[in-house]
TrEMBL record:
PROSITE patterns: CYTOSOL_AP (PS00631). InterPro entries: Leucine_aapep/pepB, Macro_dom-like, Peptidase_M17_C, Peptidase_M17_N_1. It comes from Novosphingobium panipatense. Residues 308-315 form the Cytosol aminopeptidase domain. Belongs to the peptidase M17 family. Keywords: Aminopeptidase, Hydrolase, Manganese, Protease. This is Leucyl aminopeptidase. CDD domains: Peptidase_M17. It comes from the Bacteria. The lineage of its organism: Bacteria, Pseudomonadati, Pseudomonadota, Alphaproteobacteria, Sphingomonadales. GO terms for molecular function: aminopeptidase activity.
Length: 460
């Protein structure tokens, strides 16, 4: 894609194409200030001020853009994104105000994933000027974090296995002088037995591992960010049908979110002691694959009966959450593409949010609303714990009923987070099945900005 750092630039009065943002309420007054030729151009385009519609009109010796928005006085992240996608390359300036939050969508609207195209489309950048240069770095960092998630999720599993997730963590280690530890092989089997069990059937090139990164002053509040890194999920011996595997390259979407959030935290030098954990595996099929009915020993010491090998994400997260809790952080946030039940409940656009405390939920929900990254809270209902009972072990990894699949998965994770630790779990889709302005079809970040802005409000 284009150089992201160049897409939003300080306004120094240079020549630029004018963009007029108009809502339906203000359209009549706007039209009164135009020339007859400009009004005729808009009428010919049937422009009525609807959101995401735009038209071109003459402007002196050149041309200008008139774009419809829901509310010209309260811009969203996405209200200028379609312009960034559709307008010709050039330099643009909003007339009568600053782009504000819309600058975020201006950047993400120019995202494309062309790694595998022999002839990528090169249209040149669309640059937006702003008179608020202090906001450029923060907005660009958030946009880059979202696009990092997209790049990682969009990359096929052959090129985005556990080793590649480790390489992403190594990049953070080098960029921010963080401490990194990677546990593999016999030590992984001993210390993180469920991560090892889920990933042991994969080829050696995709061998399982637990990736940890620590950064920041040890005297600052300790937080842990955990991301599910199932780089491909066949379902294991409870194999998925072919159609169910088509999107399973995205099953490391939780890890992508965690890596992107860690980058935001470190780049902003947020005063926290960060602990990033990514259990990275491929849930493959081979003679040594773990089986339905097996009983695994977890890092926490709890025994887990395997009711379904396709409920593997919660197994690797359980070991990682146990490790996170051992250092007594004050807050743990995990991201996981965990259940289809969450998608049935809240659809593809909303990550399902689970928290133990109402205050944690409200902080995340309100932060998400403020930055156009909405989330939806689902219940950690105590009555559903009985669905995870096992006749022969401490807990079963799969619910015994077809009900409340997202809640029972979250309740499974809850067993592995110490009760005195504040915890939030995002069951995120990490995928956009249909394009929207600023949000192309494919991998996407859902819940990332909500978590980031909550952390900024709390610690920044």
């Amino acid at each position: 894609m284009s150089d992201k750092n160049a897409l939003i630039q300080p306004d120094r009065g240079e020549k630029a194409i004018a963009i007029h943002l108009v809502d339906k309420q203000g359209l009549e007054d706007f039209l009164k200030g135009l020339s007859a030729g400009q009004r005729a151009a808009l009428e010919a385009s049937r422009f009525d001020g609807s959101g995401y519609e735009f038209a071109i009109m003459p402007d002196g010796d050149g041309w200008a853009v008139v774009a419809g928005v829901a509310d010209a006085n309260a811009l969203s992240s996405w209200c200028m994104a379609k312009l960034a996608e559709k307008l010709p390359a050039g330099t643009y300036r909003r007339v009568g105000g600053e782009p504000g939050p819309a600058a975020f969508g201006w950047i993400t609207g120019q995202y494309s994933f062309d790694r595998y195209k022999s002839e990528p489309e090169e249209e040149g950048p669309r640059i937006l000027l702003t008179g608020e240069p202090a906001q450029i770095d923060a907005l660009t960092a958030e946009a880059e974090a979202v696009m990092l998630v997209r790049d990682l999720v969009n990359t096929p599993a052959e090129d985005m296995g556990p080793a590649q997730l480790e390489a992403e963590a190594e990049n953070l280690h080098r960029s921010f002088r963080a401490e990194i530890r990677v546990t593999r092989g016999d030590v992984l089997e001993r210390d993180f037995p469920m991560v090892h069990a889920v990933g042991r059937a994969a080829a050696r090139s995709h061998a399982p591992r637990l990736i940890e990164l620590e950064w920041g002053d040890a005297s600052h509040p300790r937080i842990a960010i955990v991301g599910k890194g199932v780089c491909f999920d066949s379902g294991g011996l409870d194999i998925k049908p072919g159609a169910g595997m088509l999107l399973m390259k995205k099953d490391m979407g939780g890890a992508a979110h965690a890596l992107a959030l860690a980058r935001l935290i470190m780049a902003a030098n947020l005063p926290v002691r960060l602990h990033l954990l990514v259990p990275a595996v491929e849930n493959a099929i081979a003679g040594n694959a773990f089986r339905p009915g097996d009983v695994l020993r977890s890092r926490a010491g709890l025994s887990v009966e395997i009711g379904n090998t396709d409920a593997e994400g919660r197994l690797i997260l359980a070991d990682a959450l146990t490790r996170a809790g051992e250092d007594k952080p004050e807050l743990v946030i995990d991201f996981a593409t965990l259940t289809g039940a969450a998608r049935v409940a809240v659809g593809p656009d909303l990550p399902a949010l689970f928290t133990r405390e109402d205050a944690t939920a409200e902080a995340l929900l309100s932060a998400g609303r403020a930055v156009d990254d909405p989330c939806w809270r689902l219940p950690l209902f105590e009555g559903y714990r009985e669905y995870l009972k096992s006749d022969i072990a401490d807990i079963n990894n799969a619910g015994s009923s077809g009900f409340a699949g997202a809640s029972t998965a979250a309740l499974f994770l809850d067993r592995f987070v110490p009760k005195d630790i504040e915890w939030a779990h995002f069951d995120t889709f990490a995928w956009r099945p249909a394009a929207k302005p600023g949000r192309p079809k494919g991998g996407d970040a859902l819940g990332l900005r909500a978590a980031w802005h909550m952390l900024r409000q709390r610690y920044g």
